[in-house]
Structures are given as C-alpha cells and as structure tokens.
Amino acid sequence: MFSDPNANLSKLGLSLGMKVVDLGAGSGFYTIESARRVGPGGRVYAIDVQKDLLERIRTAGAQQNLRNIEVVWANAEKIGGTKLRENIADRVIASNVLFQIEKPEEFALEIKRLIKPGGKVMVIDWNGGSPLSPKTLFPSARAQMLFEKIGFKLDQSFGAGDHHYGLVLTRS
pLDDT by residue (tens digit) across 33-58? Predict the structure, then answer.
C-alpha cells in the first residue's frame, strides 16, 4: 500500500477537543480527517506556503461542514514562522515535509515551540530504495535524532506504507 493516512493518524491518539497543527498540509487529507476526529470542540490549523492548497482545504472543510479548520499561509522553516502562539498544539503532523526543507533544525524548533509539553508530533517521510522516492531523503534515524536533540522522546516508529516511515515523538 502506498500510504494509509487513516492508519497513520490512528498512531497519534487524537481525541475530542484537541488542537492539531498540520505542517505542510498539502492536499489536506490529514487536516480534514483530524478535524473529524477532534470534533467541533477541537481545532486544526492547516499550515502551508502554497495559498492555492490552503484554499482547497478551506473549501473541502466547508463542503463537509467542518468549522474547526483554520488555514494559515506561513513558513514553518523559521521559528515563529507559523504565526501561531507557543504551546498551542496537543498534536503536530509533519507528513512529507522533511525531505524538502532547507532548515530542518529550525523546523523542529518551531514544532517544539508550538507543541505543549507532553504533546506529540507525528513525522512521516520517504524511505529510500523506492523508485518513487525523491532524490533528497531525510532518513528515519536522522529525523529521530533531530527531535531527540531538542527534547523529544521516541514513542514509536512504524511503517507508514510501502514507501514511507513514521515516527511518533513526545515533547518532554
């Protein structure tokens, strides 16, 4: 299977009322499904640098009567770049982002700034060895070290489909 976002999301332990930040929201699948799972009392922030993708997410959320989605045009590669306040999130999703960013350390520090102590981040990115993999990879071990270096602890690693790895880490 290419990747099953529903199965991946089940690893994150979302519950009603949570606040979730989807960094590099892209197509919006994680945003929309997270909005369903956290319910009307929760909130999902879809962050992306591409305005057209954010507009699609806004439209899809409205069509599905999901009023708990906020789209934010922002750059998560700099500290404070998401424009969200500190410790806002119970959960953060970073799917297919690490392989394409230039400043992974600042990206990880922005996640730390956003997430509450005890909150979790789910990182999903490309495995090597697949004909579909991009030329630039950010291996699982490197991603784990990046987050552990700034105070996160690995909860679990998992296969996030045939071409992706997944990590869930908790902020101490």
Answer: 999 999 999 999 999 999 999 999 99
Q: Name residues whose C-beta falls within 8 Å of residue 80's C-beta, 6 or more positions apart in sequence.
A: 110, 113
The domain locations on the chain are: 5-89+105-117
Mean of the per-residue pLDDT values for the chain? 95
What distance in Å separates the CA atoms of residue 97 and residue 76, rounded to the nearest whole number? 10
Would you call 90 helix, strand, or coil by DSSP? strand
Structural class in CATH, domain 5-89+105-117 = alpha beta
How many C-beta atoms lie closer than 10 Å to residue 26's C-beta?
A: 19
What pTM value is reported for the model? 0.95
Dihedral over Cα of 4, 60, 32, 25: its sign: positive
